[in-house]
Amino acid sequence: MTSHATRTRPHQGDLVQAQMFAAPVPVVDIGVNLVDHSFQSDLPKVLGRAAAANVRALLVTGTCLRTAKAAANLVDAHAAAAGTPTQPLLYFTAGVHPHNAKQCTPDTLTELRRLAAHPRCVAIGECGLDFNRNFSPPDVQEEWFEQQVVLAKELRKPLFLHCRDAGERFAEILRRHTPLPAPAVVHCFTGSADELRAFLAMDMYIGITGWICDDRPERGGAELAALLPSIPRHRLMIETDAPYLVPRTIKPSKARPGRNEPALLPHVLQAAAAALGVSPEELGLSSTEVACRVFGLPAAELGLAADPR
Is the keyword Nucleus assigned to this protein (predicted)? Predict the structure, then answer.
Protein backbone atom coordinates (compact mmCIF):
# COMPACT_ATOMS: atom_id res chain seq x y z
CA MET A 1 0.00 0.00 0.00
CA THR A 2 1.53 3.29 -1.10
CA SER A 3 1.39 6.18 1.33
CA HIS A 4 0.96 9.67 0.04
CA ALA A 5 2.18 12.82 1.73
CA THR A 6 -0.56 15.08 2.90
CA ARG A 7 -1.08 17.88 0.42
CA THR A 8 -1.55 21.29 1.93
CA ARG A 9 -2.32 24.49 0.07
CA PRO A 10 -0.08 27.47 0.86
CA HIS A 11 -1.62 30.05 3.15
CA GLN A 12 -2.65 33.22 1.31
CA GLY A 13 -0.33 35.27 3.47
CA ASP A 14 2.61 33.06 2.55
CA LEU A 15 1.88 33.55 -1.14
CA VAL A 16 1.73 37.31 -0.64
CA GLN A 17 4.95 37.26 1.37
CA ALA A 18 6.71 35.48 -1.49
CA GLN A 19 5.54 38.00 -4.11
CA MET A 20 5.63 41.32 -2.26
CA PHE A 21 8.34 43.94 -2.50
CA ALA A 22 8.69 47.40 -1.00
CA ALA A 23 7.66 50.50 -2.89
CA PRO A 24 10.60 52.87 -3.44
CA VAL A 25 8.74 55.69 -1.65
CA PRO A 26 5.85 55.72 0.85
CA VAL A 27 2.55 54.94 -0.90
CA VAL A 28 -1.13 55.07 0.05
CA ASP A 29 -3.74 52.42 -0.74
CA ILE A 30 -6.81 54.60 -1.23
CA GLY A 31 -9.25 51.66 -1.42
CA VAL A 32 -9.08 48.39 0.52
CA ASN A 33 -12.00 46.31 1.78
CA LEU A 34 -10.21 45.45 5.00
CA VAL A 35 -13.36 44.45 6.89
CA ASP A 36 -14.03 41.67 4.39
CA HIS A 37 -14.36 38.27 6.08
CA SER A 38 -11.29 37.00 4.23
CA PHE A 39 -9.08 39.18 6.47
CA GLN A 40 -10.55 38.10 9.80
CA SER A 41 -8.06 35.36 10.61
CA ASP A 42 -4.78 37.20 9.99
CA LEU A 43 -5.44 40.95 9.95
CA PRO A 44 -2.38 41.89 12.10
CA LYS A 45 -0.12 40.07 9.64
CA VAL A 46 -1.86 41.75 6.69
CA LEU A 47 -1.15 45.13 8.27
CA GLY A 48 2.42 44.14 9.00
CA ARG A 49 3.03 43.09 5.42
CA ALA A 50 1.58 46.39 4.19
CA ALA A 51 4.00 48.32 6.39
CA ALA A 52 6.90 46.17 5.17
CA ALA A 53 5.93 46.99 1.56
CA ASN A 54 6.12 50.74 2.38
CA VAL A 55 2.33 51.11 2.09
CA ARG A 56 2.11 53.75 4.79
CA ALA A 57 -1.63 54.49 4.88
CA LEU A 58 -4.80 52.52 4.10
CA LEU A 59 -8.28 53.85 3.42
CA VAL A 60 -10.71 51.15 4.55
CA THR A 61 -13.78 51.16 2.30
CA GLY A 62 -17.28 51.30 3.76
CA THR A 63 -19.83 49.91 1.29
CA CYS A 64 -22.92 49.82 3.53
CA LEU A 65 -23.78 50.84 7.08
CA ARG A 66 -22.53 47.53 8.45
CA THR A 67 -19.12 47.69 6.77
CA ALA A 68 -18.72 51.41 7.45
CA LYS A 69 -19.35 50.82 11.16
CA ALA A 70 -16.97 47.87 11.09
CA ALA A 71 -14.35 50.07 9.38
CA ALA A 72 -14.72 52.73 12.09
CA ASN A 73 -14.34 50.08 14.78
CA LEU A 74 -11.28 48.61 13.07
CA VAL A 75 -9.63 52.03 12.83
CA ASP A 76 -10.34 52.67 16.52
CA ALA A 77 -9.08 49.23 17.58
CA HIS A 78 -5.76 49.74 15.81
CA ALA A 79 -5.27 53.41 16.65
CA ALA A 80 -2.49 52.85 19.17
CA ALA A 81 -0.20 51.09 16.67
CA ALA A 82 -1.14 53.12 13.58
CA GLY A 83 1.79 54.76 11.84
CA THR A 84 4.40 52.56 13.50
CA PRO A 85 6.99 50.50 11.58
CA THR A 86 4.67 47.48 11.83
CA GLN A 87 1.35 49.09 10.87
CA PRO A 88 0.15 51.75 8.41
CA LEU A 89 -2.04 54.68 9.32
CA LEU A 90 -5.70 53.70 9.00
CA TYR A 91 -8.63 55.80 7.77
CA PHE A 92 -12.05 54.88 6.42
CA THR A 93 -14.91 55.91 4.16
CA ALA A 94 -18.62 55.77 4.98
CA GLY A 95 -21.19 55.16 2.28
CA VAL A 96 -23.54 52.79 0.49
CA HIS A 97 -22.36 51.00 -2.65
CA PRO A 98 -24.89 50.83 -5.51
CA HIS A 99 -25.18 47.07 -4.99
CA ASN A 100 -26.48 47.79 -1.48
CA ALA A 101 -28.73 50.74 -2.30
CA LYS A 102 -31.87 48.63 -1.93
CA GLN A 103 -31.01 48.21 1.76
CA CYS A 104 -31.25 51.95 2.46
CA THR A 105 -33.91 53.25 4.83
CA PRO A 106 -34.91 56.71 6.14
CA ASP A 107 -32.27 56.23 8.86
CA THR A 108 -29.40 55.63 6.44
CA LEU A 109 -28.36 59.24 5.98
CA THR A 110 -28.56 59.88 9.73
CA GLU A 111 -26.18 56.99 10.35
CA LEU A 112 -23.82 58.07 7.57
CA ARG A 113 -23.75 61.60 8.96
CA ARG A 114 -22.83 60.21 12.38
CA LEU A 115 -20.05 58.04 10.92
CA ALA A 116 -18.73 60.93 8.86
CA ALA A 117 -18.13 62.88 12.07
CA HIS A 118 -15.44 60.38 13.08
CA PRO A 119 -12.04 62.13 12.85
CA ARG A 120 -10.65 59.31 10.68
CA CYS A 121 -13.54 59.26 8.19
CA VAL A 122 -12.07 60.87 5.09
CA ALA A 123 -14.85 60.51 2.49
CA ILE A 124 -18.49 59.68 1.76
CA GLY A 125 -18.68 56.46 -0.22
CA GLU A 126 -18.20 54.02 -1.79
CA CYS A 127 -21.27 55.26 -3.64
CA GLY A 128 -22.31 55.62 -7.25
CA LEU A 129 -23.95 53.56 -9.99
CA ASP A 130 -23.44 50.02 -11.28
CA PHE A 131 -25.63 49.11 -14.25
CA ASN A 132 -23.50 46.07 -15.04
CA ARG A 133 -25.12 43.78 -12.48
CA ASN A 134 -28.03 45.85 -11.15
CA PHE A 135 -28.05 44.12 -7.77
CA SER A 136 -30.19 47.12 -6.79
CA PRO A 137 -32.73 48.56 -9.28
CA PRO A 138 -31.27 51.45 -11.31
CA ASP A 139 -33.79 54.00 -10.01
CA VAL A 140 -32.98 53.04 -6.42
CA GLN A 141 -29.26 53.32 -7.15
CA GLU A 142 -29.76 56.77 -8.60
CA GLU A 143 -31.84 57.98 -5.66
CA TRP A 144 -29.30 56.95 -3.04
CA PHE A 145 -26.31 58.03 -5.07
CA GLU A 146 -27.72 61.54 -5.30
CA GLN A 147 -28.63 61.55 -1.61
CA GLN A 148 -25.02 60.76 -0.75
CA VAL A 149 -23.70 63.44 -3.10
CA VAL A 150 -25.93 65.95 -1.31
CA LEU A 151 -24.67 64.69 2.06
CA ALA A 152 -21.05 65.05 0.98
CA LYS A 153 -21.78 68.62 -0.16
CA GLU A 154 -23.43 69.41 3.17
CA LEU A 155 -20.47 68.02 5.13
CA ARG A 156 -17.85 69.31 2.67
CA LYS A 157 -16.40 65.82 2.50
CA PRO A 158 -14.69 64.16 -0.48
CA LEU A 159 -16.68 61.58 -2.46
CA PHE A 160 -15.36 58.05 -3.06
CA LEU A 161 -17.19 56.93 -6.18
CA HIS A 162 -18.08 53.75 -8.07
CA CYS A 163 -19.14 53.78 -11.72
CA ARG A 164 -19.59 50.73 -13.94
CA ASP A 165 -21.49 50.73 -17.23
CA ALA A 166 -23.30 53.86 -16.10
CA GLY A 167 -21.00 56.70 -17.12
CA GLU A 168 -23.55 58.96 -18.77
CA ARG A 169 -26.12 58.85 -15.97
CA PHE A 170 -23.37 59.02 -13.34
CA ALA A 171 -22.02 62.22 -14.90
CA GLU A 172 -25.51 63.72 -15.26
CA ILE A 173 -26.21 63.33 -11.55
CA LEU A 174 -22.87 64.77 -10.52
CA ARG A 175 -23.18 67.75 -12.89
CA ARG A 176 -26.33 68.80 -11.05
CA HIS A 177 -24.19 69.36 -7.97
CA THR A 178 -21.00 70.87 -9.36
CA PRO A 179 -18.92 72.61 -8.37
CA LEU A 180 -18.45 70.34 -5.38
CA PRO A 181 -16.88 71.81 -2.23
CA ALA A 182 -14.46 68.87 -1.85
CA PRO A 183 -12.74 66.46 -4.26
CA ALA A 184 -14.51 63.53 -5.92
CA VAL A 185 -12.54 60.34 -6.65
CA VAL A 186 -13.63 57.77 -9.23
CA HIS A 187 -12.39 54.62 -7.53
CA CYS A 188 -11.17 51.64 -9.59
CA PHE A 189 -11.60 53.39 -12.92
CA THR A 190 -12.10 50.94 -15.80
CA GLY A 191 -14.16 53.11 -18.15
CA SER A 192 -13.79 54.41 -21.68
CA ALA A 193 -11.80 57.34 -23.03
CA ASP A 194 -15.04 59.34 -23.32
CA GLU A 195 -15.90 58.65 -19.68
CA LEU A 196 -12.42 59.63 -18.59
CA ARG A 197 -12.64 62.92 -20.47
CA ALA A 198 -16.04 63.65 -18.91
CA PHE A 199 -14.81 62.88 -15.38
CA LEU A 200 -11.66 64.95 -15.75
CA ALA A 201 -13.71 67.84 -17.14
CA MET A 202 -15.60 67.79 -13.82
CA ASP A 203 -12.29 67.99 -11.94
CA MET A 204 -12.53 64.43 -10.64
CA TYR A 205 -9.64 62.34 -9.42
CA ILE A 206 -8.94 58.83 -10.71
CA GLY A 207 -8.02 55.68 -8.76
CA ILE A 208 -6.17 52.90 -10.60
CA THR A 209 -6.16 49.30 -9.33
CA GLY A 210 -4.67 45.96 -10.33
CA TRP A 211 -7.04 46.01 -13.30
CA ILE A 212 -4.09 47.54 -15.12
CA CYS A 213 -2.10 44.35 -14.41
CA ASP A 214 -4.63 42.10 -16.18
CA ASP A 215 -3.32 40.84 -19.51
CA ARG A 216 -6.49 39.00 -20.54
CA PRO A 217 -7.74 40.71 -23.74
CA GLU A 218 -11.38 40.62 -22.68
CA ARG A 219 -10.65 42.46 -19.43
CA GLY A 220 -9.33 45.67 -20.97
CA GLY A 221 -6.15 46.06 -18.95
CA ALA A 222 -4.19 47.15 -22.03
CA GLU A 223 -6.85 49.73 -22.92
CA LEU A 224 -6.71 51.11 -19.39
CA ALA A 225 -2.92 51.34 -19.56
CA ALA A 226 -3.21 53.26 -22.83
CA LEU A 227 -5.48 55.83 -21.14
CA LEU A 228 -3.16 56.55 -18.24
CA PRO A 229 -1.10 59.24 -20.02
CA SER A 230 -4.37 61.17 -20.44
CA ILE A 231 -4.74 61.50 -16.66
CA PRO A 232 -2.92 64.53 -15.20
CA ARG A 233 -0.48 63.39 -12.56
CA HIS A 234 -2.10 65.66 -9.97
CA ARG A 235 -5.37 63.70 -10.42
CA LEU A 236 -4.02 60.15 -10.26
CA MET A 237 -3.91 57.75 -7.27
CA ILE A 238 -3.37 54.02 -6.80
CA GLU A 239 -5.23 51.35 -4.85
CA THR A 240 -5.64 47.60 -4.49
CA ASP A 241 -9.39 47.19 -3.89
CA ALA A 242 -8.25 44.16 -1.85
CA PRO A 243 -9.23 41.37 -1.44
CA TYR A 244 -10.22 41.72 -5.11
CA LEU A 245 -8.13 42.28 -8.25
CA VAL A 246 -4.96 40.39 -7.40
CA PRO A 247 -2.27 41.70 -9.81
CA ARG A 248 -2.02 39.23 -12.67
CA THR A 249 1.51 40.40 -13.37
CA ILE A 250 2.37 37.86 -10.64
CA LYS A 251 3.34 34.77 -12.61
CA PRO A 252 3.16 31.82 -12.85
CA SER A 253 -0.48 31.64 -11.80
CA LYS A 254 0.26 29.03 -9.14
CA ALA A 255 2.41 31.61 -7.37
CA ARG A 256 -0.39 34.18 -7.47
CA PRO A 257 -2.37 34.64 -4.24
CA GLY A 258 -6.12 34.20 -4.43
CA ARG A 259 -6.60 37.12 -2.04
CA ASN A 260 -5.25 40.57 -2.76
CA GLU A 261 -3.60 42.59 0.01
CA PRO A 262 -2.31 46.15 0.44
CA ALA A 263 1.22 44.68 0.45
CA LEU A 264 0.78 44.02 -3.28
CA LEU A 265 0.13 47.69 -4.09
CA PRO A 266 3.73 48.10 -5.38
CA HIS A 267 2.77 45.76 -8.25
CA VAL A 268 0.05 48.26 -9.25
CA LEU A 269 2.53 51.11 -8.86
CA GLN A 270 5.03 49.34 -11.09
CA ALA A 271 2.48 48.59 -13.85
CA ALA A 272 1.02 52.11 -13.79
CA ALA A 273 4.48 53.69 -13.89
CA ALA A 274 5.40 51.54 -16.89
CA ALA A 275 2.22 52.64 -18.68
CA LEU A 276 3.15 56.27 -18.03
CA GLY A 277 6.80 55.83 -18.95
CA VAL A 278 8.00 57.13 -15.58
CA SER A 279 9.80 55.53 -12.65
CA PRO A 280 7.83 53.90 -9.82
CA GLU A 281 9.52 56.38 -7.49
CA GLU A 282 8.18 59.37 -9.46
CA LEU A 283 4.63 58.01 -9.65
CA GLY A 284 4.70 56.81 -6.05
CA LEU A 285 5.66 60.25 -4.82
CA SER A 286 3.04 62.08 -6.88
CA SER A 287 0.22 59.64 -6.04
CA THR A 288 0.99 59.88 -2.32
CA GLU A 289 1.02 63.68 -2.49
CA VAL A 290 -2.36 63.61 -4.26
CA ALA A 291 -3.82 61.25 -1.63
CA CYS A 292 -2.61 63.56 1.14
CA ARG A 293 -4.17 66.58 -0.52
CA VAL A 294 -7.49 64.93 -1.42
CA PHE A 295 -8.12 63.06 1.83
CA GLY A 296 -6.32 65.35 4.26
CA LEU A 297 -3.69 62.79 5.25
CA PRO A 298 -0.63 63.90 7.26
CA ALA A 299 2.22 64.05 4.75
CA ALA A 300 4.91 64.31 7.41
CA GLU A 301 3.70 61.13 9.14
CA LEU A 302 3.82 59.36 5.78
CA GLY A 303 7.45 60.25 5.34
CA LEU A 304 7.06 63.02 2.77
CA ALA A 305 9.47 65.91 3.02
CA ALA A 306 6.76 68.56 3.03
CA ASP A 307 3.04 68.72 3.57
CA PRO A 308 1.37 69.30 0.15
CA ARG A 309 -1.90 70.53 1.61
Answer: no
Q: Which amino acid is at 306?
A: A
Q: Is 2 left (phi over 0), alpha (psi -120 to 50) or beta?
A: beta
Q: Which residues contact 80 (CB under 8 A, 6 or more apart)?
A: none
How many angstroms separate the most distant Cα atoms in the chain? Answer: 76
Q: Residue 301 falls within a domain, yes or no?
A: no
pTM of the model: 0.94
Is 3 part of a structural domain of the chain? no
Give the CATH number of the domain where residue 100 resides. 3.20.20.140
In a domain, 8, yes or no: no
Q: Is residue 304 part of a domain?
A: no
The answer to whether 293 and 50 have CB atoms below 8 angstroms apart is no
Which pLDDT value is given to residue 306? 55
The number of folded domains in the chain is: 1
**Structural domain harbouring 135:** 22-296
CA–CA gap between residue 292 and residue 269 (Å, rounded): 17
**DSSP E strand boundaries for the chain:** 27-32, 55-60, 89-94, 121-130, 159-164, 184-186, 205-208, 236-238
User: Would residue 137 be called left, alpha or beta, if left means φ above 0 and alpha means ψ between -120 and 50 degrees?
Assistant: beta
- Residues 133-142 have pLDDT tens digits of 899 999 999 9
Residues in the annotated binding site for a divalent metal cation: 126, 162, 187, 241
Q: What is the pLDDT of residues 255-275, one digit of tens each?
A: 999 999 999 999 999 999 999
Binding-site positions: 126, 162, 187, 241
Strand partners, 185: 160, 205
Return the sign of the alpha-carbon dihedral for residues 19, 25, 31, 36: positive
Residue among 264, 235, 227, 230 nearest 248 (CA): 264
